[in-house]
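Incident review: delayed structure delivery

Summary: a single-chain prediction request sat in the queue longer than the usual turnaround. Root cause was a stuck worker, restarted by the on-call engineer. No data loss occurred. The affected request and its eventual output are reproduced below so the record is complete for anyone auditing the incident later.

Affected input:
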Amino acid sequence: MRTLSSSQWVKTLCPQTTVYLPGVSGESLAIYKALQDDPEFAASVRFVGMHFPGINRSDYLGLHAQARQRAYFMLPGLRAGLASGRGELMPLDHPRIYRDLAGLEVDVAVVQVSPPDEQGFCSPGLSYDFHPAVWSGARQRVAHVNPDLPKTRGSFRIHVSELDAMVDEASPLVQLADGKDPADERLRRQAAAVAELVRDGDTIEFGVGKLPSAIAAALVNHRRLRIWSGMIASSVLTLLDSGAVHGAASVESGVALGEAALYDRVGRDDAFYFRPVNETHDVGRLMRIERFCAINSAIEVDLFGQANADMIKGRYVAGVGGLPAFAAGAALSPGGRSIVVLPAATDDGRFSRVVLNVGKQAMAALPRHAADTVVTEYGVAELGGLSLHERARAMIRIAAPQFRDELERAWSEMRDGL
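Output delivered after worker restart:
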């Protein structure tokens, strides 16, 4: 095994190779900086990984005019590459992303890890999500050993004997601000409505951002909650510190993405346990969790209950992520439920986010047969067991008031043509 600096390792890259570089909080900023410093070594290299818009700001296609990228979420730097053929956007959910990565011929896999323990094992730290999919089959395996990365508990670890090369270098970690906005009354009402649907003793799934932070704040008086999620944010600390969530391995997730306080906590608190996507998003596992409550957001929901999670007016902005798997698991869980929560209108109030049919300028991430509960700041629509007409009525009731008459007229015309 060779020990190299990040700049030395970049110089070992060869054209026509596929390199796995993780995203979210697992991204090695040191490796990307070294690529920026010597971009000629990115020529004809295909970069692969699950990079997330708004979180991972690295532009791998922008490194070199001949660089290529296989991505699973729409990224700002990827859009131009799609037109030129240098970019590949795979329209897959998390379980299928894992399978896609497992089926790729990966020449080099790079994983950021904590320093090895006395037995030589390294922890992936903040991100376990997709590493096992590529690690065992990669022709070369490289660890960026980052002393700033916390050592965490989880179901995947890497032994130094598995490595072909090691980059031993301190590097900043990808962080995401908590996003709390206590002054936002709309968020507060949505969060309060969601909290009323959650029961003491439920196992909940929710993500990152302002709305999940508000939901966490609304759940502090609950008890015996557990968390099983693809990604957790700093808002989880609110639930732990309030006693709403308590106990060893009471927070199970694939990724921790937040600020320094969260990163310090996950390394020393046995409440946290990390798993890769083939465990966190496995519908077979999810359905065996009693009272699994999946809480997810969407861009828009139509009168049938279909949810669009990744397109705005026909333009890709993200990807479907874990929504389909978590909704399916919640539907099969004893006492489980799937909750989709969204604002009733856009921030400027010009457009309704409760729409007639998402099929006009978007695609459904969640089909109508998977619709369960939808929440806006105007109420809750329990869609399970409702007919088409009853669903439409329920969705119109939770739409922003200024759009309800228009939705009624559009539904009347559509209904007559069904």
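Verification: The chain has two domains: 2-168, 185-417.
Action items: add queue-age alerting; document worker restart procedure.
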